Amino acid sequence: MADSETLECVTEHERILQEIESTDTACVGPTLRSVYDDQPYAHKRFMEKLDARIRNHDREIEKMCNFHHQGFVDAITELLKVRADAEKLMVSRCTQGGFLIEEVVCCRLQQRNMATTVERLQLCLPGRRAYYAALKTMEQLENVYIPRVGQYRFCQIMAENLPRLRDQIKEISMSDLKDFLESIRKHSDKVGEAAMKQVGPGGRYGRTNAAEEDLQMVSEEEEEEEEGDLVDFSPVYRCLHIYTILGDRETFENYYRKQRKKQARLVLQPQASMHETVEGYRRYFNQIVGFFVVEDHILHATQGLVTRAFTEELWNMALSKIIAVLRTHSVSKIFELDNYSPIPQDFPKKLPMSQSVPQIYTQVKEFIYASLKFSESLHRSSTEIDDMLRKSTNLLLTRTLSGCLQNLIKKPHIGLTELVQIIINTTHLEQACRYLEDFITNITTVSPEAVHTTRLYGLSTFKDARHAAEGEIYTKLNQKIDEFIQLADYEWCMAESDGRASGYLMDLINFLRSTFQVFTHLPGKVAQTACMSACKHLSTSLLQMLMDSELKQISMGAVQQFNLDVIQCELFASSEPVPGFQGDTLQLAFIDLRQLLDLFMVWDWSTYLADYGQPTSKYLRVNPTTALALLEKMKDTSKKNNIFSQFRKNDRDKQKLIETVVKQLRSLINGMSLHS
Hints:
Layout: H1 2-22, H2 28-36, H3 42-122, H4 131-148, H5 153-199, H6 207-221, H7 234-245, H8 249-268, H9 278-301, H10 308-337, E1 343-344, E2 350-351, H11 356-376, H12 382-410, H13 416-444, H14 458-485, H15 503-518, H16 524-547, H17 556-574, H18 591-602, H19 605-611, H20 624-635, H21 638-641, H22 645-650, H23 654-675
Antiparallel strand pairs: 1-2
Helix pairs in contact: 1-2, 1-3, 4-5, 5-6, 5-7, 5-9, 6-9, 7-8, 8-10, 9-10, 10-11, 10-12, 11-12, 11-13, 12-13, 12-14, 13-14, 14-16, 15-17, 17-18, 20-23
């Protein structure tokens, strides 16, 4: 029993020792208390056990120290050696540190100098629109500072780049100028509107002061807009200054004037719908006024960028354009609404003129009356007013009305019927001029017999318009004939004719008949000239068709068909489509064709060759060159189509005769060439 208790005690003490070894010092108290609270005398045995454990640990520590002693001795020896080297290193480090500090100070000084240089060089760059300051700085660098340090490579590079920087500044300033030009083009109507309000109808201010105040007022009115002031002239001043400094002012002046002249032409060009509303006219005039307000400001704010002569040149160009625009639109509306038909009266009467004649007459009278009202404020004598009215009316007739008539006649939609009516209208307008002169006499009370008065030039105005319309009639008539000719579709190698005229030609003749019926209202000479011109053009076109170089072969059957068509042309000419022709005058338009076709139809070469050059020759109008060309075309088809079979039945040598005729014609032509 006692032995078992002793064993338990030893085991418990071993546990306590292990716990003491592994437990934090602060927690040892409860463990030790358990030793004293246990069996009596147990603490004595625990102390013995503890002493034994301590001795055991001491032995372990001694063994470990003995094991690591030699390594410790070696480490101490190494430290003693390093100490000497460390003392040497400290001495060397102090010496080198002084040198390093000096180098750091030098580098930092260089960095500060470089930063200062960069800061100064930034002033040379064209940033923030400080172009003038940049140019002055570059000038100082180039002339003062760079020569002092020219041995450095970066200075050489800098000197090489200065011209490029100057060009860059020129380009940027020119870009600003282009933006300015676009801006004033965009806002010219607003500038003009403000100027018109500022000056008013009475012209209260001088031209320069008005321009300055207009621009100031417009700028104030537009202050709240995103774009800022409506007209900012600083880009002009800046660009002019820069180009002047760089010695290239003339280039800038030429560019500015050229661009403004282009803009003037754009401003003076009205929109197509301008004349339809009063607002359209107002906007047109505002743009023009705005343009010249800006130019007036530039004229007085700069020295020589624009000159008075240049401004006057622009104004004269504008004046002529404005007058032309107003004249064009003041009477043209009447022509656009005209139906170009005689004015109907109580049946069966008709006035030969169309509705535009009385409307034009009324417009001219209203113009004369308005001119009278205007002249009354000028405090002139009756004679002077009368002269002024007549001259103004002459301008209206000779420029405005004449120009409108000329433009009307050339319009594509004006056909033959309209042209005939225009000729009739101008005849009546010409006759109406004497009534206009009487009207001026009545309102001015100045008798033409009392003083030498200016006559109205209506006679020449309307005569010129008539001649232009007549010429256009001839041209359009010929164009219409060409359209029919293009429809011709001959079978050039046909064996025999159809026995009737071609359809296209009959349609053409019907068209000519109906057209010349409309010409009955024209003066006789005009109708006869148009008819003769049409017949000659038709004859020439038909002959050209035969002689076309693309046409290589023609059969006798095709010649016979062609002859049937020419016969219809001759019948038309002899039917007197327009009265007044003497005898067969109109038929003579086809005489060249008739003689040529007769020569080939009859095959009368012996007569032609024998009588050639004689005034009484039956084929006087047949040119040997034309005859040869047609004969060559027919010769090429003789073998294929048996064209001359009827002749060969009578005479097998007819083919040889053709060859003989060809040779004789060529000989005749060569003789003519030598003779000429």
